[in-house]
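User: I'm putting together a teaching handout on how sequence relates to shape, and I'd like one worked example. Could you take DUF1684 domain-containing protein from Halorientalis regularis, show the sequence you're using, and then write out its predicted structure as tokens right after it?

Assistant: Happy to. First the sequence, then the structure tokens directly below it.
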Amino acid sequence: MTDDTDDWAERLQANREEKDRFFADHRQSPIPPAERDGFDGLDYYPPDPDYRVTATVTVHDEPEPVELDTTEGRTVRYLRIVTFEFELDGESHELHGYRQENDDEGIFVPIRDKTTGQTTYENGRYMELEPDRELTDGDEITLDFNLAYSPFCAFSETFDCPLPPEENWLETTVEAGERAP
């Protein structure tokens, strides 16, 4: 492994340890208080640099509204602001990034793949991107599936979470990030 890969793996491990501490101890943890004493950390796939892919960005200058279903049967409105094109396992794929109206922070990327309901949470996982600049057509950005995580509703029914829309269902196996709780 290169030094860059070693540094990345160390940062990823530190991120996971910090998240486990939050889930175990923080008052805003999605783990029900009665279950926190028995919580010994989330289950993750081993870090795999093959699931850090370079994606080409297409920006939607006039973002289309998209209604995402939620785990509670409601819908929430997001705007499809970008499309990411990338290769994974030798095949070309697309994912869309969303943002809620009046939100200028981050890009929400909900996904399903062939691990969904098998080894990962049955309703899909999320990734969040926080680019250090405004994206433009043709930009390249790293999508790191090792950061894919289960939404809070995977841990408690008190949360209502958006479901990945069919356009973000990947026809491949993504054995990276969090496994099912």
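A couple of points you could highlight for students: The CA atoms of residues 32 and 56 lie 40 Å apart. The chain has one helix and six strands.
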